[in-house]
């Protein structure tokens, strides 16, 4: 499966909207569900370029690193803290790691459906519209 950039971003946004409250998944899992499993960094780029007031909401903050950490946005940025705060507001337990990173227990909060399960969710959502 090969998607152009706009199609890939649209697919990422569609999948991210399906992540339930109080759950998280990884950039890599979103890439896998979008049919492009080697493009986890591109998932991060798609979320980085997400317009601020997108309607319906795309809960970008529910996508984290595969190790259960919130990815740093680099020195002098507050994106990781904003992501942490949004997850805590939903009820996700975020702990401070030894190196100052923020961690989420994927066994407790992880959301890792199969592609078939996501297709079924998308179909149900399309019928509701």
TrEMBL record:
<dbReference type="GO" id="GO:0003824">
    <property type="term" value="F:catalytic activity"/>
</dbReference>
<dbReference type="InterPro" id="IPR036388">
    <property type="entry name" value="WH-like_DNA-bd_sf"/>
</dbReference>
<feature type="domain" description="Methylated-DNA-[protein]-cysteine S-methyltransferase DNA binding">
    <location>
        <begin position="7"/>
        <end position="92"/>
    </location>
</feature>
<dbReference type="InterPro" id="IPR036217">
    <property type="entry name" value="MethylDNA_cys_MeTrfase_DNAb"/>
</dbReference>
<protein>
    <submittedName>
        <fullName>MGMT family protein</fullName>
    </submittedName>
</protein>
<dbReference type="Pfam" id="PF01035">
    <property type="entry name" value="DNA_binding_1"/>
</dbReference>
<keyword id="KW-0227">DNA damage</keyword>
<dbReference type="InterPro" id="IPR052520">
    <property type="entry name" value="ATL_DNA_repair"/>
</dbReference>
<dbReference type="GO" id="GO:0006281">
    <property type="term" value="P:DNA repair"/>
</dbReference>
<dbReference type="InterPro" id="IPR014048">
    <property type="entry name" value="MethylDNA_cys_MeTrfase_DNA-bd"/>
</dbReference>
């Amino acid at each position: 499966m090969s998607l152009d950039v706009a199609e890939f971003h649209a697919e990422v946004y569609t999948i991210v909207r399906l992540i339930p409250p109080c759950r998280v998944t990884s950039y890599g899992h979103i890439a896998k569900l979008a049919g492009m499993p080697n493009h986890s960094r591109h998932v991060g780029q798609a979320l980085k370029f997400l317009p601020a007031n997108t309607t319906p909401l795309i809960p970008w903050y529910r996508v984290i690193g595969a190790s259960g950490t919130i990815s740093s946005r680099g020195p002098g940025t507050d994106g990781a803290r904003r992501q942490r705060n949004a997850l805590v507001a939903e009820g996700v337990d975020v702990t401070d790691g030894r190196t100052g990173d923020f961690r989420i227990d994927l066994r407790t909060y992880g959301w890792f459906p199969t592609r078939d399960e996501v297709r079924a969710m998308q179909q149900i959502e399309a019928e509701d519209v």
